Amino acid sequence: MPLVLPLLLAVVLFCLGVYGVLSRRNAITILMSLELMLNAVNLNLVAFDAWHLDGLATGQTLAVFVITVAAAEIGLGLAIVLLLFRGHGHVDADAARDLVEHEESAT
């Protein structure tokens, strides 16, 4: 299989993920879009590893590390989303931006 086919698929997946992160306001959809972007990176790592044929499987090893980091990121992200939903009844990312507490200036 030529290298360009998995790379084109990875570009399409990454662009869909970027579009999802930039255009959506729902926190769950943003997390799913981030996962799509990480899967595109995994596809690139594995495709270049298969193309390079060095015998060390470094691309596949890095892909396993990316999957591990993605699982931790999703676990933490879903915990934050659940706390946001329990406390405020919505998972709107724009409204969550307004929840930041500002320090009172000491005068």
TrEMBL record:
GO terms for biological process: ATP synthesis coupled electron transport. It is found in: Cell membrane; Membrane. It is a multi-pass membrane protein. Keywords: Cell membrane, Membrane, NAD, Oxidoreductase, Quinone, Translocase, Transmembrane, Transmembrane helix, Transport. GO terms for molecular function: NADH dehydrogenase (quinone) (non-electrogenic) activity; quinone binding. The chain crosses the membrane at residues 62-85. Its EC number is 7.1.1.-. The keyword Transport applies. InterPro entries: NADH_UbQ_OxRdtase_chain4L/K, NUOK/Mnh_C1-like. One of its GO terms (cellular component) is plasma membrane. NDH-1 shuttles electrons from NADH, via FMN and iron-sulfur (Fe-S) centers, to quinones in the respiratory chain. The immediate electron acceptor for the enzyme in this species is believed to be a menaquinone. Couples the redox reaction to proton translocation (for every two electrons transferred, four hydrogen ions are translocated across the cytoplasmic membrane), and thus conserves the redox energy in a proton gradient. NDH-1 is composed of 14 different subunits. Subunits NuoA, H, J, K, L, M, N constitute the membrane sector of the complex. HAMAP family: NDH1_NuoK (MF_01456). This is NADH-quinone oxidoreductase subunit K. The lineage of its organism: Bacteria, Bacillati, Actinomycetota, Actinomycetes, Propionibacteriales.
